[in-house]
Amino acid sequence: MGDGTEDAGAAPRRWAHRAFERIPTGWLVTAGTGAALAATAAFGGLAAVATPVPVVAVGDAYEGAGLEMTVLSASLSDDPRGTFVAPEEGERVLRVELDARNLGTTPRGTVNATGVDAVRIDGGPDEDPWVSRRDDDTTGVQLQPRVGAPLLLTWIVPADAYHDGDELVLLLPAATEHDLTLSAGTGWQLDGVGARVTLVVSDAGDAP
C-alpha cells in the first residue's frame, strides 16, 4: 500500500517462503519421488514392470513345476522315426533332448500334466510337444518320483522356420501345485515362464 502499511497476509507469506528455502533439497526430491511412485502404483504402473525371466545354460538343471529339467540339444530332421509325429510336405521335425526328474512323491505324467508338456519354443508353435523317451522310443511317459528320464520333445515346424546354426529359445514352465476340487489328489496350475534356455539348432538332414 502507498501509505507504508503492510497487508495482514504479507508476514505469514514471507515466513512460509523462508521456511521452504530451509528444507534440504534431498528431502524435496525424496518426497517428490515417493509421491510419483504412489501415483504410479495407484494406476497400476508398477504392476506393469515385468520381472526378468532367469536364463539357464544348456546342460544346467532348472527346477520348476515340480520337476528338474535339463535341456541338452535341439535338432532338425526330415525323418520322423522315433517321434510319433507325421510331418507333411513343407514341414520338418524339430527335436529337443531334455532330461527330466520328478521332484515329487507320486508319479507324474507327460500329457496334460503342466510339466514337460508345457515347454514352449519362443516364437514357435504354441502347442504341447510330443513327449517320448530317448532310450526306448516309448510314449505316454510316466515320471517316477526322484528318478531321471531321458526325454525327447518333438514339434512339427515349417521347413523354412529354422536352419542349421540358428538360435532357438526354449521356454521352461513355472507351475504351482494345488488340490483338485472335483476329485482326490492334486493338480498343477501354470504360472508362466520360469526360465529361458538358448540353444543352437543343428540340422540332421535325413537322419532321425
Tell me the series of helices and strands, N- to C-terminal. Answer: HHEEEEEEEE
CATH class of the largest domain: Mainly Beta
The proportion of residues forming helix, as a percent range, comes to 10-25%
| Binned strand content | 35-45%
If you compute it from the alpha carbons, what radius of gyration comes out, rounded to the nearest whole angstrom?
29 Å
Which helices and strands occur, and which strands form pairs?
Layout: H1 10-21, H2 25-42, E1 61-64, E2 67-77, E3 91-102, E4 120-121, E5 130-133, E6 148-158, E7 167-179, E8 186-203
Parallel strand pairs: 2-8
Antiparallel strand pairs: 1-2, 2-3, 3-6, 4-7, 5-6, 7-8
Description:
Residues 117-137 are annotated as: Disordered. Helices cover 14% and strands 36% of the residues. Residues 25-31 and 43-47 have low confidence and may be disordered. It is built from two helices and eight strands, in the order H-H-E-E-E-E-E-E-E-E. The protein folds into two domains: 10-47; 61-203, Immunoglobulin-like.
How would you briefly describe this protein structure?
Helices cover 14% and strands 36% of the residues. It is mainly β and 208 residues long.
Question: What labels describe this entry?
Answer:
single chain, 208 residues, mainly beta, Immunoglobulin-like, 2 domains, eight-stranded mixed beta sheet, 2 helices, DUF4352 domain-containing protein
